[in-house]
Amino acid sequence: MDLFIILVICLSCLILFSLWKGSHARRKLPPGPTPFPIVGNIMQLNTKDISKSLSMLANDYGPVFTVYFGMKPTVVLHGYEAIKEALIDQGEEFSGRGSLPVVERFTQGLGVAFSNGETWKQTRRFSLMVLRNMGMGKKTIEDRIQEEASCLVEALKKTNASPCDPAFLLGCVPCNVISSIIFQDRFDYGDRKFHALIRYFHENFDIVSTPWMQLCNTFPFLHYFPGSHNKLLKNVAAQKQFILEKVKEHQESLDINDPRDFIDYFLIKMEKEKHNKQSAFTMDNLVITAWDIFSAGTETTSTTLRYGLLLLLKHPEITAKVREEIDRMIGRDRSLCMQDRSRMPYTDAVVHEIQRYIDLVPTNLPHAVIQDTQFREYLIPKVRAVLSIF
């Protein structure tokens, strides 16, 4: 009985301390719904549609408000004006990456998508330079995209117009374009390792979209329990091993005077900075950066393509107009190229509308302020998480 009383007293003190600490912190932050002790505003949000819940709160609290995921306050920016003002006009202050504990378990602060500070700056600057050298926005990558589009068309022709699920093929296309940049070579659509790599991306995307993952990021102690987060970690470990094997193959055939792809450029940079203990160019960072590039481009692009096909099937009148413009401007004898974009305003508008309509990443990845930041009439403390939604 005495033990029970002690536990009750300790729990009461914890709740009171949580209430006091939260009240003190909220004085400096934008307004928002009153959080419950420990769980914050989780009970007031629809975890299956966080974006909609936050949009509804914006109607009550305005375009800048605060919600608590557990005991962690998060500043929410809602709408174009607030997001532009923060991420563009004050982009340097808001350039940090918010904490995602599940992801941090396998990225360990490395890569370009989930890193911060000097590691992020070095890796981002280098990655952009290499991609430009390899032709990002130029003819060379355009050739690779056209080649992969032709392979997709040939694969679809083999179905002989019979009903089929194109999801796998649509996943192959962006993955192969990225593979040609990272590994130099594309994969055959029948390659079993390639199948496994794409399956992992599909599964990862599904897992990170679940309410359970949101809870795991809010309450990191849940990592020690069974759940889909363990499947995510297993998938990523397999993907990292796949990338590492490719890196070892590159090490055996590397010519520092003739880099073939992203891995070669990174290995050369590693060699140049091997005596710099502060360098971000390590084997671990190479693997995570390659994984980041794959993850950022593969599932997002293939999902957009799938939604685009569904919307065109649902609106045949729109499809007919797009087809007419393509036949008139391109014909049947050559592939589409970037120079055609300015001459095909209707098709360009349809592509943009598809991207707007599907709202692929509604809350975006969390940002963080890298220093105490004055934003409008509020003071956002350093390392505070920031979500942006339209």
From TrEMBL:
Cofactor(s) listed in the protein's UniProt record: heme
Entry GO terms, CC: endoplasmic reticulum membrane
Membrane topology: Peripheral membrane protein
Signal peptide: 1-25
Primary location recorded for the protein, binned into one broad class: endoplasmic reticulum
Similarity remark: Belongs to the cytochrome P450 family.
Name of the molecule in the record: Cytochrome P450 2C3-like
Gene, per the UniProt record: LOC103265697
